[in-house]
Amino acid sequence: MWIVVDPEICHGKPVFKGTRILVSDVLEMIAAGMSIEEILKEYPQLSEEMIREAIEYAARLIRENIMSLRFLLHAVHVPKGAKDSEVAKIAKSTNSILLTRDSDFANTLMYPRTSSLGSFFLKHILRSQKT
């Protein structure tokens, strides 16, 4: 196992064993289009096996987070058509994290931060790509 997490090294971020090279840095290099060979030239202390483990590590984190998110989404059921204020009240009373794709949900004037303690209100922003 080449990936380690130690609170004393790089603030506990995942690094490659025996280095201070962040796994996230290598994954960003891959995302930017660099080949494994190019990364190995940049970081000769790494091996191809280590880089492949980083990719597997990222896949595992995504898989685990999706499973956790599925649990959260099914943990509290809200009646279809419920008003925003009712949904916020249910989230607060059950200490649930509230995720919504409703673009105008939780207007900050209607739900100031102090009234929604324990809940997160996330907004989904749609971006159009122009070519």
UniProtKB/TrEMBL annotation:
Residues covered by the DUF5615 domain: 80-112
Pfam families recorded: DUF433, DUF5615
Name of protein: DUF5615 domain-containing protein
Organism ancestry: Archaea, Methanobacteriati, Methanobacteriota, Thermococci, Thermococcales
